[in-house]
Specification:
six-stranded parallel beta sheet
Length: about 230
């Protein structure tokens, strides 16, 4: 029997992020991709849980990882396994919050193309896939971006959730991620009981697209043997 698996996309991302995983994990998992773009954590979480089976394995990338922690806050008994990719439980610094507010204002003013270029460059280590990532960001669009950033600006602290997570957990760090450091991911594995850390080389923040084979391999091991 296949494992029910929900993959939660991150900021400005859709199912394109999970293309390789969708193609190569279907033999062991019944996969559902969710790409939330509501303007609050509660609305995002409700949208995910309303579509989810009674129990499921859960993996989230970036903003999607934060949403996984929110799901563990409100419905821990429904999550059988957890994988967090390129994410953190820490709150925004004042500088990060101000940057989000500035990008929201820039989007409202009609400068979404500039946002896409800057975010794609910051998120991507491999220039060969930067064009593909920009195309995805543009497809998701400015309205969704503003709602997502608004939700993250108003999110609750979630570090207190970590010690209460008791399902098998894998944390994936990309060595060239300029958004979340190895220290961020070590904090997750230190605070989540029995969590394990995997490090992917030659990848920036967009690891499911930059090193898709490596991410798929780790997810297959997590699904099969954790």
């Amino acid at each position: 029997m296949k494992t029910s698996l929900i993959l939660v996309s991150g900021l400005l991302s859709d199912s394109s992020v999970w293309k390789h995983q969708l193609q190569h994990l279907g033999d062991i998992a019944a996969i559902q991709v969710v790409s939330p773009s509501q303007d609050s954590a509660k609305a995002m979480v409700d949208a995910i849980l309303d579509r989810a089976p009674p129990t499921f394995a859960l993996a989230g990338h970036s903003m999607g990882g934060w949403l996984c922690l929110e799901i563990l806050r409100v419905a821990p008994s429904r999550v059988s396994k957890l994988c967090l990719l390129n994410t953190s439980a820490r709150d925004d610094s004042k500088e990060k919050a101000a940057m989000r507010q500035a990008m929201i204002a820039k989007g409202i003013e009609g400068h979404f193309d500039e946002i896409v270029g800057a975010v794609a460059q910051m998120f991507t280590q491999n220039p060969r896939i930067e064009k593909e990532i920009k195309h995805m960001f543009l497809d998701v669009g400015c309205d969704a971006f503003i709602r997502q950033e608004t939700a993250m600006l108003h999110r609750q602290p979630c570090e207190a959730v970590l010690p209460k997570i008791h399902c098998p957990t894998l944390v994936i760090h990309a060595a060239q991620d300029r958004n979340f450091s190895l220290e961020d991911h070590l904090k997750l594995t230190d605070k989540i009981p029995n969590a394990k850390l995997a490090i992917i080389e030659d990848s920036g923040h967009m690891s499911p697209m930059e090193q898709p084979q490596a991410v798929t391999s780790h997810l297959r091991y997590w699904l099969s043997y954790f």
